[in-house]
């Protein structure tokens, strides 16, 4: 059955594009998307950070927009959602310390639901222990975490994405066209496709 209700878990200094672009794109395509942050309520905001690639040894970081949450983490039930989106940025680094966040991530994998993660979102997947034997892309600095968690790191172009069954991942926001296209294909599929990189 195609998925229609999506949960997005985000937090302060989530990456701006990796939060706002999928949120708005999925809404525009007719999906219901509830964006939540532990410790915050619907109507409150999270600060975003803009990570850019400007020729330095790592990305630069600048203050982004305030992103408005439209649901309350403590009130949502993972069981009510068909899919999960995990943006990157700095938020996954501390969200992975929250036992309720980990429990939520585990629900989506245990239930075989669709999951999309981008960039540092893989930190949450690694912390939840759901990557063993799974192909997963992430920001290259997260490669050790993916591999230490038993995942197979997909060393792909920054503009590409990879699907492994119900899991769709990408290295960073330049992959949005490929990442969102693959995720929507998985969302709309009556059955979960096999591994695909593009």
UniProtKB/TrEMBL annotation:
<dbReference type="InterPro" id="IPR006286">
    <property type="entry name" value="C56_PfpI-like"/>
</dbReference>
<dbReference type="InterPro" id="IPR002818">
    <property type="entry name" value="DJ-1/PfpI"/>
</dbReference>
<dbReference type="InterPro" id="IPR029062">
    <property type="entry name" value="Class_I_gatase-like"/>
</dbReference>
<dbReference type="Pfam" id="PF01965">
    <property type="entry name" value="DJ-1_PfpI"/>
</dbReference>
<comment type="similarity">
    <text>Belongs to the peptidase C56 family.</text>
</comment>
<protein>
    <submittedName>
        <fullName>DJ-1/PfpI family protein</fullName>
    </submittedName>
</protein>
<feature type="domain" description="DJ-1/PfpI">
    <location>
        <begin position="5"/>
        <end position="184"/>
    </location>
</feature>
């Amino acid at each position: 059955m195609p998925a229609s209700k999506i949960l997005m878990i985000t937090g302060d200094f989530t990456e701006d594009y990796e939060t706002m672009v999928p949120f708005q794109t999925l809404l525009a395509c007719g999906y219901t998307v509830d964006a939540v942050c532990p410790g915050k309520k619907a109507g409150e905001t999270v600060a975003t950070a803009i990570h850019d690639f400007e020729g330095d040894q790592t990305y630069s970081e600048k203050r982004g927009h305030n992103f408005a949450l439209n649901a309350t983490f403590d009130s949502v039930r993972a069981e009510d959602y068909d899919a999960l989106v995990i943006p990157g940025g700095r938020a996954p680094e501390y969200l992975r310390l929250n036992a309720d966040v980990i429990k939520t991530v585990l629900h989506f994998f245990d239930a075989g639901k669709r999951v999309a993660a981008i960039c540092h979102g893989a930190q949450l997947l690694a912390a939840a222990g759901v990557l063993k034997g799974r192909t997963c892309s992430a920001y290259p600095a997260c490669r050790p975490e993916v591999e230490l968690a038993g995942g197979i790191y997909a060393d792909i172009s920054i503009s590409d994405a990879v699907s492994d069954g119900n899991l769709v991942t990408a290295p960073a926001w330049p992959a949005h066209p490929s990442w969102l296209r693959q995720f929507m294909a998985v969302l709309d599929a009556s059955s979960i496709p096999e591994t695909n990189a593009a």
